[in-house]
Every structure is written in C-alpha cells, then in structure tokens.
Amino acid sequence: MPAVPMLSSQSDARAMSYERMVGVADIALRAVLMHQPNPSADLVFGTVVNWRLSVCNELQNRASIALSDSTTSLPSITRINASMIDWAAFAQAWRNTYKNFTRNYPPSPATAKDGGTPFRTVDQHHYDSLVELLEAYGVSGLWSENEVREISRVWHFLAPWPDSSIGLDGLNNLGIQTCTLSNGNVSLLQDMAAHAQLHWTHIFSSEHFGAYKPSPTVYKGAVEKLGLRVEEVAMVAAHLADLKAAKGCGLKTIYTERPMEEDFDVEQIEAAKREGWVDIWVSIEDGEDGKRGFLELVRRLEIM
After folding, report:
1. Which partner from 20, 64, 113, 144 sits 20 to 30 angstroms from 268, CA to CA?
2. pTM of the model
3. Helix axis angle, 266-275 to 240-248, nearest 10°
4. What is the band of 30 on the pLDDT scale with cuts at 50, 70, 90?
C-alpha cells in the first residue's frame, strides 16, 4: 500500500482532501475517534469544547461570590491572595496537572477485585489537584469542601466550540461513527455530551481500558470495541502528540487546530508537516466564515 503523502507546507495540508487520503489508503473511513478536552481524546478537551473559557469563568465567578459574601469570615491573607490571582493562569496550571497525571499514569489492567490498584479517574484527579493548587496559591480557605468539590466538576459542563455540535451531526449524517476517545471518565463525558449537545454515536473513555492516552492500550482498545480495522478509523484531535501516538497504532489522523491548544512548538509543528503523519490538516483559518473547524472537515469528507 502506498505511503500517505507528506504535507510539505501548510498550503499543501489545506489542499489535501479526504478523497486523496482514501485514495492512497485504498479504504473507506468508517469511524472517527475524538479527544474530548479533557476531558481531551483529548478530541474532546480542547478539540470539541472550549475548556479555557468555561473553567476561567467558573473560577472567577466563584471567587467573586466568595469575596463579596458578607456572611462568610475569610482571613485577611486569604482575601489578599485571592484578589491577586490571575484565574486564567490558575486554570492553565490546573490543566497542566491533568496533562502530567495522564501522561505518567501506569496502565492498570487488573481491577481492584483482582488484586490490582483501583483505577484513578480524572474526576478524582481534578478534585485532588484543585485542593493542592488552592493551598499552593494561599487560598485554601476561600471555598468550603463542598464548594471545592462542585468547582472540580466544572469539566463536566464545558462550552463547545461553535462548530462542534453541528459538525458532529454532519459527520453522523455522512454515516461515520463519531466516538469520544477521551481521558475523561465516563460520567464526565456523558454530562458534557448532554450539556453541549454533542451527539456521539459512542462514548469511549480511558476508564474503559484501565489506562490513559497516549498508552497504545487506549487507541487499540477503542478500535477493537468498534469491531473495525485500525486503518478504517481516524483519530481527530487538536493536539499533535495525541495524533502521533494514534498514528503509531496504525490509525488515520486528522488535525483540527484550535486556539491555544497545541503544545508543540513551531519547529515541532513544521516537522509534523514534513514527516507526513497527519493525514488531514484543518487549520484555524481553513474554510469559509462560520464554517470552520468540524464544518470544514465535513466539507472535505463530502467531496470523496
């Protein structure tokens, strides 16, 4: 089977249609896996939903309420520290703890019942890491324990990108199965789908496989659950590291660029284009006004 053509430049990447990708692969795409931010694969966190906007707003609003509540007596140092926090930076620090957690989590195929270590969910991590960050920023008393628990669940109710819901519907209408492949736990993904009107045909979580991406166990496990061959499935993500791991497992790869989501630097991005392991590249400016992101992806798939 011929190799997938290299994307030597961004303009070449834009010109590459789904029809060309299928031509070189000689196979029809039957499913796409998406990191749901996060509660990223990871098509979900960052790719499908705008986690940054939702999380920053939640933290800022909750802090404002706590600081203006005349019925609560907060220590002066807590008030001072809270008033000085850049909540956008705090949100990014919280997100970074998630990345470190999932990247370094050892696969645990054995269940607790079988004598293995219980799988630690992203929900539990989000709560624990929020508690640690509040202490590190000197505002551990800003919210009650119940309030911290509620805030830690903000990742269940993230706002979608404008093209996400209608774009997913478009993919579904093409007869392509749309599946989350996220490090977020199942309940998180279910809440997010309902909140953001994301009509997935399947919800797959790392929780199903006892491991977190980029473990091959997750990518291969999702393909197996679909009952398809790896070359029939594409990973869609706004994170090149996720796509590189998926490509290493034999999946097709589709990059949908989102603002401030890519961790690769400029040199790494250019190397990814030269090396050609991204099969379809949808940049932020690709497509007509109001028809970018997933809608541009649907347009490309329709021309096959």
Report:
1. 20
2. 0.81
3. 30
4. confident
C-alpha–C-alpha distance, residues 301 and 304, integer Å: 6
Q: Are 184 and 203 in contact (CB under 8 A)?
A: no
Average pLDDT over residues 135-144: 97
- CA 245 to CA 75: how far, in whole Å? 47
134, 140 contact by CB (below 8 A): yes
**Token pair listed for 209:** 């496989």
